[in-house]
Write a structure and sequence with these properties.
Helix content is 47%, strand content 14%. By secondary structure, the protein is α/β, with parallel strands linked by helices. It folds into 3 domains: 121 residues, 3-Layer(bba) Sandwich (Glucose Oxidase, domain 1), CATH 3.50.30.10; 100 residues, Enzyme I, Chain A, domain 2, CATH 1.10.274; 251 residues, TIM Barrel (Alpha-Beta Barrel), CATH 3.20.20. The strands form 2 sheets. An 8-stranded mixed beta sheet has the order 1-8-7-3-4-5-6-2. Helix 19 links the parallel strand 15 and strand 16. Helix 10 runs parallel beside helix 11, helix 17 crosses helix 18 and helix 21 packs antiparallel against helix 22. The longest helix has 25 residues.
Length: 560
């Protein structure tokens, strides 16, 4: 194995696969010197027809996709129909550009704005470039870029995959996904995990791999073996078989081997997500992202529309707990009906609860709808606010929640200040859930959508674990439960550390629950506590992970 070409990326969807490379067709670029259009008005109409055809394709894909992919694809279709994009292309046509060049330049202007805004908008750059690439190809009379038709089970390799490409994959013929860019929270990572496809992102020189090259992909460790020898291939396949056996060996509520309970919950964003997750072996919902109801809408959803959606979600889970996050939007997730104006640093601006304070009518309507749906269904509903930084903010939110007849109020701990002062914050509410994705980017001063900074945002960063520990200390002091709903909750090994730090619930993509349940079942609480201490004492993320792995049951190598 030592002489083999072994590369290391970031594993974002667990599983092991071995198969030949299929490279995604690269985007078509406009001709270097595309002639200026002779009739800008006619070319503008042509561009609008092509963008509408792209929107239609995306909507068609959405109609055949799962709930999460459907949301993403529908939003991407709206981007293709954005009149601002066509208007920006008109300006380039008037300036002497050809149609393909005009669309390319207009899209890149928007991409630059999205990247500068950060957060949710930065996540949409790949989506917008997918719209651009399809439009450019069609304007030039060429085939859309993307995954070619597969004739055998294959490993899909690309610089990056747009949601439309991931959602339209032939699941029975896709063994794994490998990309050269992207990050742990990219749409590719999210969709691959939900589809159960092993995936590795940030793999060096991925697009240079020849078509037909055999790859062995480990979506847990991020290792990719190029032309693996028979021994390596056999080892990985055996590990995959043992993993499947381990995942099927446990069921029911999460708990350590000595009976310490750790609730295993699902992250959802829509009513369809809820109905899909509710039939699985999960203990409820740890994060219901309600912003999907609001994003991309010209006007706020009505009280009646919200009641209908919340009722559907609550009915799906019956008596199981449902933790609802109120609207998490703002400068980095702009709302047409709640525009607070541009901000120089949206990630540090008026988002989450800060937006609710500026537009309290949005929060009041949402809380009224949640209260109505709760009374109708009798569900166990717990409501939490995003982006809480101080005890005063927590108290303000808790008061609003209880005024609407909802008895359980909580907060997200995503800001270092809230973690460090958690005993004061928790004194005002009933529970907290740690959003480790945002907590990591604020702690390390690294945009979580900036792929080049992925190593800084490693969830094993000891500094982030220190903040989780501080939050849990506040939970113990106040007797309030602390959960985690960020990506680390889905890592079987890191879930043990979180348990040792004092976390009482873990929320994740439903497909990740079995591996975490199995990991907990292999270890007692005392071992988890020792793992937490070892991870916090480490100098680096790699050292932290290695120290914890040294304390783990040997069977863990089959789960991670």
């Amino acid at each position: 194995m030592s002489a083999m070409d072994t590369r290391h990326g970031i594993g974002v969807s667990p599983g092991i696969a071995v198969g030949p490379v299929v490279q995604v067709r690269p985007p078509v670029r406009p001709p270097d010197k595309e002639p200026a259009t002779a009739d800008p008005a006619a070319s503008g109409k042509q561009i609008r027809r092509v963008l509408e055809s792209v929107a239609g394709t995306l909507e068609s894909l959405a109609g055949r996709a799962g709930p999460t992919a459907q949301e993403i694809l529908t939003a991407t279709a709206m981007m293709a129909r954005d009149p601002g994009l066509a208007a920006a292309a008109d300006k380039h046509l008037a300036g002497g550009s050809g149609p393909a060049t005009a669309v390319d330049a207009a899209a890149e202007e928007y991409c630059a704005m999205f990247s500068a805004a950060g957060g949710y908008l930065a996540e949409r750059v790949t989506d917008l470039r997918d719209v651009r690439d399809r439009a450019v190809a069609r304007l030039l009379g060429l085939q859309d870029p993307g995954v070619p038709e597969l004739t055998e089970p294959s490993v899909i390799v690309a610089h990056d995959l747009a949601p439309a490409e991931t959602a339209s994959l032939q699941r029975d013929l896709v063994l794994a996904i490998v990309t050269e860019s992207g990050g742990p929270t990219s749409h590719t990572a999210i969709l691959a995990a939900q589809m159960g496809i092993p995936a590795v992102v940030q793999l060096p020189r991925a697009v240079a791999l020849d078509v037909g090259t055999i790859l062995a992909v480990d979506g847990s460790t991020g290792e990719v073996f190029v032309d693996p020898d028979a021994g390596t291939e056999a080892t990985l396949i055996a590990r995959s078989e043992r993993r499947a056996e381990a995942l099927g060996a446990t069921s029911g509520p999460g708990a350590t081997s000595d009976g310490h309970p750790v609730a295993l919950l699902a992250n959802i964003g829509t009513a369809d997500d809820a109905e899909r997750a509710a039939v699985l072996d999960v203990e409820g919902v740890g994060l219901f992202r309600t912003e999907f109801l609001f994003l991309g809408q010209e006007i706020a959803p009505t009280l009646e529309e919200q009641v209908a959606v919340y009722t559907r979600v609550f009915q799906a889970f019956g008596p199981r707990r449902i933790v609802v996050r109120t609207l998490d939007a703002g400068a980095d997730k702009p709302l047409a009906f709640a525009d607070l104006g541009s901000e120089e640093n949206p990630a540090l601006g008026r988002r989450g609860l800060r937006l609710s304070a500026e537009r309290p009518e949005l929060l009041d309507t949402q809380l009224t709808a949640l209260s109505t749906a709760t009374r109708t269904t009798g569900a166990d509903v717990r409501v939490m606010a995003p982006m809480v930084a101080t005890a005063e903010e927590a108290a303000w939110f808790a008061r609003r929640v209880r005024e609407h007849g909802l008895p359980v109020a909580g907060v997200m701990i995503e800001v270092p200040a809230a973690a460090l002062r958690s005993r004061h914050v928790l004194a005002e509410v009933d529970f907290a859930s740690i959003g480790t994705n945002d907590l990591g980017q604020y702690t390390l001063a690294a945009d979580r959508m900036q792929g080049e900074l992925a190593t800084l945002l490693d969830p094993w960063q000891p500094a982030v674990l220190d903040l989780v520990a501080a939050a849990c200390d506040g939970g113990r002091d106040t007797g309030k439960p602390i959960g985690v709903c960020g990506e680390p909750a889905a890592d079987p090994l890191l879930a043990l550390v979180l348990t040792g730090l004092g976390v009482s619930s873990l929320s994740m993509a439903p497909t990740r629950v079995p591996a975490v349940r199995a990991a907990l079942h292999l270890h007692d609480l005392r071992t988890c506590t020792a793992m937490a201490s070892a991870a916090r004492a480490a100098r680096s993320p790699r050292d932290a992970r290695d120290a914890v792995l040294a304390l783990a049951n040997r069977l863990m190598s089959d789960l991670i």
